[in-house]
Amino acid sequence: MFDTVVVATDGSESVKRAVDVALDLADRFDAEVHALSVVDASEVDASPQQLREELRTALETTADAALATVEERSDADLEIDTAVREGRPAAQICEYAREVDADLVATGTRGRHGENRLLLGSVAERVVRTSPVPVLTVRQLEPAGEGTDDEAVGAA
Protein backbone atom coordinates (compact mmCIF):
# COMPACT_ATOMS: atom_id res chain seq x y z
CA MET A 1 0.00 0.00 0.00
CA PHE A 2 2.79 2.43 0.91
CA ASP A 3 6.13 2.08 -0.86
CA THR A 4 7.54 5.56 -0.23
CA VAL A 5 6.85 7.77 2.78
CA VAL A 6 8.05 11.37 3.11
CA VAL A 7 8.42 12.67 6.65
CA ALA A 8 8.45 16.47 6.77
CA THR A 9 10.22 17.75 9.87
CA ASP A 10 11.39 20.99 11.39
CA GLY A 11 12.62 19.33 14.56
CA SER A 12 9.89 20.87 16.71
CA GLU A 13 8.04 19.10 19.50
CA SER A 14 4.91 18.98 17.35
CA VAL A 15 6.69 16.84 14.77
CA LYS A 16 8.18 14.20 17.08
CA ARG A 17 4.97 12.16 17.25
CA ALA A 18 4.55 12.45 13.48
CA VAL A 19 8.05 11.07 12.99
CA ASP A 20 7.33 8.11 15.26
CA VAL A 21 3.99 7.36 13.57
CA ALA A 22 5.48 7.68 10.07
CA LEU A 23 8.45 5.45 10.89
CA ASP A 24 6.14 2.84 12.39
CA LEU A 25 3.92 2.95 9.31
CA ALA A 26 6.92 2.67 6.98
CA ASP A 27 8.25 -0.27 8.98
CA ARG A 28 4.89 -2.07 8.82
CA PHE A 29 4.70 -1.65 5.04
CA ASP A 30 8.43 -2.10 4.44
CA ALA A 31 8.37 1.32 2.78
CA GLU A 32 11.23 3.55 1.73
CA VAL A 33 11.54 6.61 4.00
CA HIS A 34 12.56 10.10 2.97
CA ALA A 35 12.99 12.74 5.67
CA LEU A 36 12.81 16.34 4.51
CA SER A 37 13.47 19.57 6.32
CA VAL A 38 12.88 22.93 4.66
CA VAL A 39 14.74 26.14 5.41
CA ASP A 40 12.05 28.79 5.17
CA ALA A 41 13.35 31.29 2.62
CA SER A 42 10.92 33.94 3.87
CA GLU A 43 12.69 33.97 7.26
CA VAL A 44 16.03 34.54 5.55
CA ASP A 45 14.64 37.18 3.19
CA ALA A 46 12.97 39.07 6.05
CA SER A 47 16.22 39.45 7.98
CA PRO A 48 18.64 42.35 7.55
CA GLN A 49 21.02 41.85 4.62
CA GLN A 50 24.13 41.62 6.82
CA LEU A 51 22.58 38.76 8.84
CA ARG A 52 21.17 36.64 6.02
CA GLU A 53 24.08 34.26 5.52
CA GLU A 54 24.45 33.76 9.26
CA LEU A 55 20.72 33.09 9.61
CA ARG A 56 20.70 30.74 6.60
CA THR A 57 23.58 28.78 8.13
CA ALA A 58 21.79 28.60 11.50
CA LEU A 59 18.57 27.42 9.85
CA GLU A 60 20.46 24.79 7.82
CA THR A 61 22.11 23.57 11.03
CA THR A 62 18.67 23.30 12.64
CA ALA A 63 17.37 21.40 9.59
CA ASP A 64 20.32 18.98 9.74
CA ALA A 65 19.65 18.41 13.45
CA ALA A 66 15.96 17.73 12.72
CA LEU A 67 16.93 15.11 10.14
CA ALA A 68 19.44 13.55 12.55
CA THR A 69 16.62 13.22 15.08
CA VAL A 70 14.54 11.30 12.54
CA GLU A 71 17.45 8.94 11.92
CA GLU A 72 17.97 8.48 15.67
CA ARG A 73 14.30 7.64 16.22
CA SER A 74 14.24 5.02 13.48
CA ASP A 75 14.77 1.30 13.76
CA ALA A 76 18.39 0.39 13.01
CA ASP A 77 17.49 -1.53 9.84
CA LEU A 78 15.26 1.21 8.43
CA GLU A 79 17.28 3.24 5.93
CA ILE A 80 16.30 6.89 5.64
CA ASP A 81 17.14 9.22 2.79
CA THR A 82 17.45 12.80 4.02
CA ALA A 83 17.26 16.14 2.26
CA VAL A 84 17.34 19.82 3.15
CA ARG A 85 15.63 22.27 0.82
CA GLU A 86 15.23 26.02 0.90
CA GLY A 87 12.03 27.76 -0.10
CA ARG A 88 8.43 27.94 1.00
CA PRO A 89 7.98 24.87 3.23
CA ALA A 90 4.63 23.62 1.93
CA ALA A 91 5.62 24.06 -1.71
CA GLN A 92 8.96 22.33 -1.16
CA ILE A 93 7.35 19.40 0.67
CA CYS A 94 4.86 18.87 -2.15
CA GLU A 95 7.54 19.21 -4.83
CA TYR A 96 9.77 16.72 -3.02
CA ALA A 97 6.87 14.26 -2.70
CA ARG A 98 6.44 14.42 -6.48
CA GLU A 99 10.17 13.98 -7.11
CA VAL A 100 10.48 10.82 -5.01
CA ASP A 101 7.11 9.47 -6.16
CA ALA A 102 5.83 9.36 -2.59
CA ASP A 103 2.72 7.46 -1.60
CA LEU A 104 2.28 9.44 1.62
CA VAL A 105 3.52 12.61 3.30
CA ALA A 106 3.58 12.67 7.10
CA THR A 107 3.78 15.88 9.07
CA GLY A 108 3.08 17.18 12.52
CA THR A 109 0.66 19.87 13.53
CA ARG A 110 0.06 21.72 16.74
CA GLY A 111 -3.67 21.18 16.33
CA ARG A 112 -4.51 24.88 16.31
CA HIS A 113 -7.88 25.79 15.00
CA GLY A 114 -10.20 28.72 14.65
CA GLU A 115 -8.79 32.22 14.90
CA ASN A 116 -5.26 31.11 15.86
CA ARG A 117 -4.93 29.04 12.69
CA LEU A 118 -6.06 31.96 10.57
CA LEU A 119 -3.62 34.35 12.21
CA LEU A 120 -0.63 32.04 12.33
CA GLY A 121 -1.13 29.98 9.19
CA SER A 122 -0.15 26.35 9.01
CA VAL A 123 2.38 24.57 6.85
CA ALA A 124 0.55 21.31 7.52
CA GLU A 125 -2.72 22.80 6.31
CA ARG A 126 -1.10 24.07 3.10
CA VAL A 127 0.47 20.66 2.51
CA VAL A 128 -2.92 18.96 2.99
CA ARG A 129 -4.48 21.34 0.48
CA THR A 130 -1.78 21.10 -2.21
CA SER A 131 -0.12 17.70 -1.86
CA PRO A 132 -0.25 15.38 -4.85
CA VAL A 133 -0.52 12.40 -2.45
CA PRO A 134 -2.37 11.68 0.82
CA VAL A 135 -1.11 13.51 3.89
CA LEU A 136 -1.00 12.06 7.38
CA THR A 137 -1.13 14.81 9.99
CA VAL A 138 -0.25 13.90 13.53
CA ARG A 139 -1.23 16.35 16.21
CA GLN A 140 1.00 16.98 19.18
CA LEU A 141 -0.67 15.85 22.35
CA GLU A 142 -1.05 18.48 25.01
CA PRO A 143 0.41 17.72 28.43
CA ALA A 144 -1.82 15.69 30.74
CA GLY A 145 -4.33 17.72 32.68
CA GLU A 146 -5.08 20.27 29.98
CA GLY A 147 -8.44 18.73 29.17
CA THR A 148 -7.84 17.59 25.60
CA ASP A 149 -9.30 14.57 23.94
CA ASP A 150 -7.17 11.67 22.81
CA GLU A 151 -7.92 12.13 19.12
CA ALA A 152 -4.48 12.82 17.75
CA VAL A 153 -4.22 11.48 14.25
CA GLY A 154 -6.07 12.63 11.16
CA ALA A 155 -5.51 11.74 7.53
CA ALA A 156 -6.45 13.78 4.56
TrEMBL record:
PANTHER family: STRESS RESPONSE PROTEIN NHAX (PTHR46268), UNIVERSAL STRESS PROTEIN UP12 (PTHR46268:SF6). Belongs to the universal stress protein A family. Gene3D superfamilies: HUPs (3.40.50.620). This is UspA domain protein. Pfam families: Usp. Residues 1-139 form the UspA domain. It comes from Haloterrigena turkmenica (strain ATCC 51198 / DSM 5511 / JCM 9101 / NCIMB 13204 / VKM B-1734 / 4k). InterPro entries: Rossmann-like_a/b/a_fold, Universal_stress_UspA, UspA.
